[in-house]
Amino acid sequence: YPLCALAVSDERPVSTQSTWGQRLYCVSEGDEVVMIGDGQMSIGTVVAKSTTNKVRYLAKDNVICGFAGAAADGLTLMDLIDKQLKEYLGQLMRACVETTKLWRTERMLRNLDALIIICDSDLTLELSGSGEVFESHGDIMAVGSGGNTLA
């Protein structure tokens, strides 16, 4: 498959992981895409679980979506994006813009705290709750701690 989702976790003991932030990376070359999430779920500064799957396939495995941030918020946003992708078939940018509009304007969604990376074989986007939809200008996109250094 041209789209590949991986979940990786650090093998360090939980007590030392609490200083590490959440990370999500997406690398594409041609029509092949790999998205990697660190799998870390924390409560405050304590790592509750280090093997969480933060990367999911959407739109009948044609799109990969991942998040960094609050788990419930990220999963809620993934569900919302999936609904938009069903409404706007084959239009990833349009589905993401509509999702971001809802995220920013709907009272119930406004306080969701997560950053989203979503991609298909042609387009990689980052979504934020403040209304931005960023298109990747290169082959790498990253969010979370160290994301700006990698990208």
Write up what this structure looks like:
- It is globular, with a radius of gyration of 15 Å.
- Strand 2 and strand 3 form a beta hairpin.
- It starts with a strand and ends with a helix.
- The protein is built from four helices and eleven strands.
- The longest helix is centred in the middle third of the chain and has 17 residues.
- The chain has 151 residues and is α+β, with helices and mostly antiparallel strands.
- Helices cover 26% and strands 36% of the residues.
- A five-stranded antiparallel β-sheet has the order 6-7-8-9-10, with helices on one face.
From the structure above, extract its key features.
single chain; 151 residues; alpha+beta; five-stranded antiparallel β-sheet; four-stranded mixed β-sheet
Task: Explain the layout of strands and helices.
Layout lengths: L2 E5 L6 H4 L5 E7 L2 E6 L3 E3 L2 E4 L5 E4 L4 E7 L1 H17 L4 H14 L8 E6 L4 E4 L5 E3 L4 E5 L2 H4 L1
Helix pairs in contact: 2-3
* Helix fraction by DSSP (H/I, runs of at least 4): 25-40%
Q: Which assembly state applies to the chains in this document?
A: single chain
Radius of gyration: 15 Å
Spatial arrangement of strands, main beta sheet: 6-7-8-9-10
Spatial gap, N to C terminus: 24 Å
Question: What characteristic shape results from the CA principal axes?
Answer: globular
Secondary-structure element sequence? EHEEEEEEHHEEEEH
- Structural class based on helices, strands and sheet pairing: alpha+beta
Q: What is the average per-residue confidence, as pLDDT, rounded to a whole number?
A: 81
- Low-confidence runs of at least 5 consecutive residues: 7-20
The fraction of residues in strands falls at: 35-45%
Main beta-sheet annotation: 5 strands, antiparallel
The counted number of beta strands is 11
Number of helices: 4
